[in-house]
Specification:
single chain, mainly alpha, three-stranded antiparallel beta sheet
Length: 282
């Protein structure tokens, strides 16, 4: 064996060696998980047998689907002069109760404009990114593909399109004031992998945030290290993006609150059966 062949073998072995920092996954596994998430080589796959009962339990999908059905029924939605959804479809969507908002429920916020309900606003943008909806002359309407995927026999494909657009098209940092970096979003499937591995026991967010940061340590550099609270700010960012606005939105976790309001330090999360009803794991 010449030097080049030996070097190639060593690189191959290194790339395929399970690492503790990756919870037993190899660098090659992580590469596929990040960039080819649902490929045959990834440790996380979407199930091919996701049924309607399972889809009915995914709140964010139900919001997006209901939004598309409003467009199907009404032919179009006329946007406000600022390009936002008007109040009427917002109220109709929120009334389904798919994702109650604690600020709206408590009366702190009134549902007057699109920005008042971040889950509905995000569903609108995700449907546009997925090219299920188009905007023209100040109106939103279904695309041909959107109308096709609303057929009952295409419901699973509709879910796949929405999940892909949410995780890989929509920028999660658009919903908060944390750094405009893919914290939480890059490696979202690693968080799902962790949830499958550890989620049978109720755990606080920092349990997952610490392991995520161990796997992707470069993300700490995007937070203010001079204040001495970079770890705390990172954990809060991960909490909001991954748990509050992904895992809860998709029904993959339940939360036990020690306080009346959401709290990253005291809330504890448990995986639901939807994790294994939607994904398979290597």
């Amino acid at each position: 064996m010449n030097l080049k062949d030996e070097t190639d073998v060593n690189i191959l072995l290194q790339n395929n060696t399970p690492l503790d920092d990756f919870l037993g996954l190899s660098p090659t596994d992580i590469h596929h998980l990040l960039y080819n998430t649902f490929s045959d080589n990834s440790p996380v796959h979407l199930r091919s047998d996701i049924d309607h009962t399972t889809l009915d339990r995914i709140p964010f999908f139900r919001i997006a689907e209901a939004f598309l059905k409003i467009l199907q029924r009404d032919k179009f939605i006329k946007l406000t002069p600022l390009g936002a959804l008007p109040r009427k479809p917002m109220v109709e969507l929120y009334a389904h109760g798919f994702l109650p908002d604690e600020h709206i429920e408590s009366g702190v916020v009134k549902l007057w404009k699109q920005q008042d309900c971040i889950s509905i606003q995000t569903a609108r943008f995700v449907c546009e990114i997925a090219r299920l909806v188009k905007k023209s002359n100040g109106k939103l309407s279904l695309t041909k593909n959107g109308a096709t995927l609303l057929q009952p026999e295409n419901r699973l494909q509709l879910f796949k399109e929405i999940l892909a657009a949410f995780t890989m098209g929509f920028n999660w940092d658009a919903n908060d004031r944390y750094p405009q970096q893919p914290v939480g979003q890059l490696g979202w499937a690693f968080s799902v992998y962790m949830l499958n591995k550890f989620g049978s026991e109720a755990r606080p967010v920092h349990f997952y945030a610490d392991k995520y940061l161990t796997a992707f340590p470069m993300f700490i550099t995007f937070f203010d290290t001079q204040s001495g609270a970079s770890q705390q700010h990172f954990t809060l960012c991960y909490y909001i993006r991954t748990f509050s606005r992904f895992l809860l939105w998709f029904g993959f976790v339940t939360v036990k609150k020690e306080k009346a309001y959401s709290d990253a330090d005291t809330n504890k999360y448990t995986a639901t059966d939807l994790v294994q009803r939607v994904f398979t794991f290597e």
